[in-house]
Amino acid sequence: MKRHDILVVGGGMAGLRAAIEASQSADTALLTRLHPVRAHSGAAQGGINAPLANAEGGKNDTPEMHAYDTVKGSDFLADQDAVELMCQEAAPCVYELEHWGTPFSRLPDGRIAQRPFGGAGFPRTCYAADVTGHVILITMHGELLRRGVTTYEEWQVTRLVIEGGRCQGVIALHVPSGELEAFAARAVIFATGGAGRLYSRSTNALHSTGGALGVAYAAGIGIKDMEFVQFHPTTIIGTNILMSEACRGEGGYLVNRLGERFMQRYAPKAMELAPRDIVSRSIQTEIDEGRGFEGGFVHLDLRHLGKAKIMERLPGIRDICQHFLGIDPIDTPIPIQPGQHYAMGGIDTDNDGASEIPGFYAAGEVACVSVHGANRLGGNSLLETVVFGKRAGAAAAQHVKTAGAGVDIPAMERALAEERGRLQAFLNSSGPENPAGLRDELQRTMTDQVGIFRSREGLEAAVRKIAELKQRAARINIMFKEWRFNLDLVNHSELPLMIELAEVVAQGALRREESRGSHSRRDFPKRDDDRFLWHTVAHRGREGPVFARKPVRITKWKPEERKY
């Protein structure tokens, strides 16, 4: 058994920032299924928001204006005190990253450069060309190494241990050796990212399954607002690799097969820089109504930006296009379609990352504070990771100082034995179902029925299908029966958890009879504040999710119609 005061699970930006903060005053370890610089945070291209007021046209930007844009972008479902906190701490956190060595792009006078992003009243997105997440991730990892934080790589959490009403630690599998181990900790922070691989068309990495979120849900932790799933407007056809919002922030056009800049029909003022939910629905509408290209896409056109600007500001985009499409965006439009991108929902936490269970915290995409509400603005996800990763790390360290009880070691030993038995039974399974096939069916169902546009008929069909998959998942067959480096076990032990998360998403979407942000019901096209201005919180019940409501915290801005 391994013991630490604080265990951070997840090696992306939220996890690294939490571990850096907690390690200042407590014995802290980081546990991650990947080497940290391979975390999905590195795929974030466009930038991180902060009201620095550096850009031309952004001189009057303030934290309050940043907060208003975020609340409006959320379709007024974000908790406004959390949003104000995030926006107040944005500039100090970005300057901290700068002082640690993050190589931000610069203005001629040396200040951090900023670009426009969707839904923002000012150009406030700080960037490093189009590889912002990658360079911040590497910078943070260097800071983690400098501080000597213990890191366990290639460990996958399979169980969260809660005993006596508080968190005791986790059980995790070391993939290369097949060792199953108990990690006892007085505080645990989950920072494990999103659940994009519930969908077949996703910008998320293959490891973004939501498995750790499912582990928390299975342990009795409440998860909030899971029906709100963001679709990024611009992903390349075939692979759905992200084409950053920076493409449009730098002036790229969206064009249909008739040569029209069609955003004029949907957001005449903001055009291509409307919030992501609006742009995604607009693109899908163009495709559905026959104005897209054969194959189901429209064009993202960067040609008018010129070679010099593309090479300076969007070199990563050009590289992706050349390698995965065989085209050069300097002289050829990019074929794009919307794809699942981000989960606004996650573990229900307060502004310090604390969950309902003492000693258990969450930060980043796996958490729901909520600062994104029904729709996230581009550039706010990286900001969320550093602001709330830092706060969760500090809160966990304070908990360790003040919490009197230590870890219940017998409870951890029992949990380890139970988990070993569960996984051994999983390995011994010899049912008729192919787990890879079940996963494909789940992903297709979510994409087709719980996607950009939703309806009662489609959601009810999805709920029925997910119930069927839930039963069939109990009869799967794991082909490889050994413990050591068993990727069958790694991938397919998460399948029941993924199905349960999909069940929460689909049932939550069915219950919410309105359209708000990313949740667009064809049968209920209007936002309904009288009936649905609340958060959805789901707990695991014997027969499926048990739903409750939680009020939205409103401070300054009363809900109003969104116009762009």
Topology (elements, then pairings):
Layout: E1 2-9, H1 13-22, E2 28-32, E3 48-49, H2 63-73, H3 80-100, E4 114-115, E5 125-126, H4 132-146, E6 150-153, E7 155-163, E8 166-174, E9 179-190, H5 211-218, E10 223-224, E11 229-236, H6 246-249, E12 253-255, H7 276-288, E13 298-301, H8 307-313, H9 315-324, E14 334-343, E15 346-348, E16 360-362, E17 367-368, H10 380-402, H11 409-427, H12 435-449, E18 453-454, H13 456-472, H14 487-492, H15 495-511, E19 520-521, H16 529-532, E20 534-541, E21 544-551
Parallel strand pairs: 1-2, 1-9, 2-6, 9-16, 15-17, 18-19
Antiparallel strand pairs: 3-5, 4-5, 7-8, 8-9, 10-15, 10-20, 11-14, 12-13, 13-14, 20-21
Descriptive account of the structure:
With 564 residues, the protein is an alpha/beta fold. It has helices at 13-22, 63-73, 80-100, 132-146, 211-218, 246-249, 276-288, 307-313, 315-324, 380-402, 409-427, 435-449, 456-472, 487-492, 495-511, 529-532, and strands at 2-9, 28-32, 48-49, 114-115, 125-126, 150-153, 155-163, 166-174, 179-190, 223-224, 229-236, 253-255, 298-301, 334-343, 346-348, 360-362, 367-368, 453-454, 520-521, 534-541, 544-551. The strands form 5 sheets. Strands 1, 2, 6, 7, 8, 9 and 16 form a 7-stranded mixed beta sheet that branches. The protein has a 5-stranded mixed beta sheet with strand order 17-15-10-20-21. Strands 11-14-13-12 form a 4-stranded antiparallel beta sheet, with helices on one face. Helix 1 packs parallel to helix 10 (380-402) and helix 2 (63-73) packs across helix 3. The termini are far apart.
